[in-house]
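Figure 6 in text form: structure in, sequence out.
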């Protein structure tokens, strides 16, 4: 069992490294979103997807090893308890990993939420920019517009949907 616990610990170490590099990519993505460099965003997103696939593979590897320890979905707390029974030397290391994973989970969640908020804000800004451009190109499209003599500009009735015409 000691050998399987040691392999479990090694895979968790690899997962921690993968999560840390995912955090670095999230920071890079946040910076790119703030700077508005959408052309670079594709590359970072591709790296994030690649890192997520690596994490998925590591998770499967960890589950495979955990199966030999009695439970495919072995939690860190359960692994720590098993280590207390058979190998006290691993307990501190597993507890340290557990703390790192909790911190990484909170950090990655916060970074993902921040990035989603930045993306939503960017979409709103793009929508407002499009509205400004449409108004500049077709000022008559805005309802309630006035001509150079201060008179209301009639909206072209052909632009109105047939549903509104019948009402």
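Output sequence:
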């Amino acid at each position: 069992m000691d050998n399987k616990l040691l392999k479990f610990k090694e895979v968790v170490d690899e997962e921690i490294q993968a999560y840390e590099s995912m955090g670095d990519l999230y920071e890079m993505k946040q910076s790119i979103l703030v700077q508005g460099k959408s052309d670079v965003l594709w590359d970072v997103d591709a790296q994030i997807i690649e890192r997520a696939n690596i994490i998925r593979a590591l998770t499967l590897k960890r589950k495979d090893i955990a199966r030999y320890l009695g439970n495919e979905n072995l939690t860190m707390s359960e692994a720590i308890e098993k280590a207390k029974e058979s190998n006290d030397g691993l307990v501190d290391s597993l507890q340290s990993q557990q703390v790192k994973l909790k911190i990484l989970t909170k950090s990655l969640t916060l970074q993902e939420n921040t990035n989603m908020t930045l993306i939503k804000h960017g979409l709103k800004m793009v929508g407002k920019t499009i509205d400004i451009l449409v108004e500049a190109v077709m000022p008559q499209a805005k309802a309630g517009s006035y001509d150079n003599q201060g008179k209301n500009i009639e909206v072209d009735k052909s632009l109105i949907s047939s549903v509104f015409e019948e009402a």
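Caption detail: The chain has one domain: 2-122.
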